[in-house]
Amino acid sequence: MSTFKQGRYSGFIRPICYLIDLLIINGCVFVYEINLTSLYFFNIYISVLWFFLSFYVKYYEVHRHTRVIQIITLLLKQIVLFAFVLYAYVGFFKQFHTSTDNLGNYLILVLLSLSFFKFLTYYLLNKYRSALGGNSRNIIVIGKNEKTRQLIKTFKTRLDFGYIFKGQFSVKEEGFSLNKCFKFIIENEIDEIFFSVAELSNKQINKLIDFADNNLRELKFIPDNKEIFSKKLKYEYYDYIPILSIRNIPLQESLNKFVKRLFDIIFSLLVIFFILSWLTPILAILIKLESKGPVFFKQSRNGFNYKEFDCYKFRSMTPNKDAHLHQATKGDHRITKIGAFIRKTSIDELPQFFNVLFGDMSVVGPRPHMVSHTNMYARKVDKFMVRHFVKPGITGLAQISGFRGEIETDKDIINRVKYDIFYIENWSILLDLKIVIQTFVNALRGEKKAY
């Protein structure tokens, strides 16, 4: 049987992309006078390490459903590591006559050329699927509920994905049997089977898995979300034992941790030196003039791995014994006039950049709750504790999506957790930047629930 199945990504696309990328990184060397001792040795060096880096970063793991932001993330990861490899060559092989300026120019040219080619390939493949119907996959859906309805709608509207919807089988309908599905799959040359976990018994799922394995069909699970769900399972081997992990967390990878921590340190230092250095004395005077009490307010909150830490803010309320128990509500009499302004513009949160610098928080992440509220929501909301797999943030995806401030209904906290879990499972430095920019825009506009 041929390794390259009809209707799916051609098995030659990735090797061709790899060869063209090698031509780019090697060809660009001849554009600038880098003054290398041995040009051919340098070409071998960058080719071999490009190969290993691409496997580490998963640079060529781009699928039909991959989003543009994920491609940009892969590209930046690959080029940053490649830059380290380039400059390591100069030091390790003592290339003291190398022109570092031209080496930098070479790196920029490589980045631009690779970006152009990668996005051109992505665009052409999408057009090939949507306009010409090529590189397609025949699919069926087993199960009938809201999630399967949304999925089928996606298949029909996103033609660039290249999925051709061939049929749906309702488990609840009279006369349903997996054998009928199997016959349909064989007769219609179905490539992928999507099924709802909630609608099949364990026995049926096992039977479906056996059929898919024995007939070389791909099987995709549609989870029973129950309002909040995990994005994907992570498949690993412990020695020779296969293990399924409930979720894949990008920030558990050492390189991603380093990148995020570096971003946190640089960003927090910029805010502390260029904003807090002059803003703090001004706010201190205004806060003190309006009410007696400290300039800063600290509150115990739960952070990474559920560990408690002191979260800092500019004081926006008159000193009161309930500050650690009750969050601010609309028309709260405890809030001062200057407090109302700094809360509306989120200026009261700025001292938390010291928390970021000290390592208790991150610039972006799930917002930390008061300890009393954390204990309450942990019992009340499914998967609430997943938020503590990463450091809490000054701002987050939930906050820019309209779920900040007072929690008025259960729906507010459920949606907040839903966005937090999505962030944890889909983290990228570009997503962090997007959230920071949107937070700044929202602060300028003034937020409805900031009180």
- How many helix segments? 14
- Number of DSSP strand runs: 10
Shape descriptor: flat
What structural category arises from helix and sheet content? alpha/beta
- Using only C-alpha atoms, the radius of gyration works out to 27 Å
Distance between the termini: 65 Å
Return residue spans where pLDDT drops below 50 for at least 5 consecutive residues: 1-9, 226-231
Q: Tell me the strand percentage band.
A: 5-15%
| Helix and strand element order | HHHHEHEHEHEEEHEEHHEHEHHH
Average pLDDT over all residues: 84
The portion of residues assigned to helices is: 40-55%
Q: Please summarize the sheet with the most strands.
A: 4 strands, parallel
Spatial strand order of the main sheet: 2-1-3-4
Provide the fold topology:
Elements: H1 13-27, H2 39-57, H3 68-92, H4 100-132, E1 137-142, H5 146-157, E2 163-169, H6 178-187, E3 192-196, H7 202-214, E4 218-222, E5 234-238, E6 241-245, H8 254-290, E7 296-302, E8 308-314, H9 337-344, H10 352-358, E9 362-364, H11 371-380, E10 393-395, H12 397-400, H13 410-425, H14 429-445
Helix pairs in contact: 1-2, 1-4, 2-3, 3-4, 8-10
